[in-house]
Design a protein that fits this description.
197 residues, alpha+beta, Jelly Rolls, 7-stranded antiparallel β-sheet, 4-stranded antiparallel β-sheet, 3 helices, 22% helix, globular, binds 2-oxoglutaric acid, binds fe (ii) ion, iron
């Protein structure tokens, strides 16, 4: 995985989480979703955070390590190991992870973007884990990622949001979008950050 990041800048790994672990994490997300804990996702941050239905229509719930269920905690532990491995190989100095559950109801999408807020560089690596059992091509909701750093044109690949699949890429370099979902699409999206950049 780390080698893929070094050589290509992005990686997709099927089965990063085993079936059981992934299913448990999906249930924790579903329970929170059904309990009404999610909020409409915004664009920008701080005072500039606004809901923009023309850009993204997902709903999110930020992970809170203090109040997380066991499967969420186990996933956070794995990410912590991944953070260490990336730092050892890439000397990136990633110091923390922030992430959220995301739900894309039918009709939701997220237009092409980079994962970096205007004027900031603190989000260095993006990691997205998909939590959808039995996802079919007709459910849409693919991740489209342009595979040349900095380019929002040219070659791209598609990733189906299947249970346990993890995608990792350099947050400021790879343009990506979520194509419209036609079934409820669940994931955990997060970022490894450096301090104060
Ligand atoms: O869920 C995905 O495939 C991508 C989500 C995304 O790009 C984001 O939340 O920034
Ligand atoms: Fe993104």
């Amino acid at each position: 995985m780390v080698e893929g990041l070094v050589t290509r800048g992005w990686v997709c790994l099927d089965g990063f989480l085993g079936e059981t672990e992934a299913r448990e994490l999906a249930s924790e997300s579903l329970e929170a979703w059904e309990g009404g804990d999610f909020r409409r996702a915004g664009v920008g941050r701080g005072e500039n955070l606004t809901v923009r239905e023309d850009i993204r229509r997902d709903h999110v719930l930020w992970l809170d390590p203090e109040n997380a269920g066991p499967a969420t905690r186990a996933y956070l532990d794995r990410l912590e190991a991944l953070r260490g491995a990336i730092n050892r190989e890439l000397f990136l100095g990633l110091f923390e992870y922030e992430g959220h559950f995301a739900v894309y109801p039918p009709g939701a999408f997220y237009k092409a973007h980079l994962d970096r807020h205007k004027g900031t560089a603190d989000r260095v690596v993006t990691a997205i884990l998909y939590l959808n059992d039995g996802w079919l091509p007709e459910h849409g909701g693919r991740l489209k990622i342009w595979t040349e750093a900095g380019r929002q044109d040219g070659p791209f690949e598609h990733v189906e949001p299947r249970m346990g699949t993890l995608v990792v890429f350099l947050a400021g370099d790879y343009w990506h979008e979520v194509e419209m979902a036609h079934a409820t699409r669940m994931s955990v999206t997060g970022w490894f950050r450096v301090r104060g950049a």
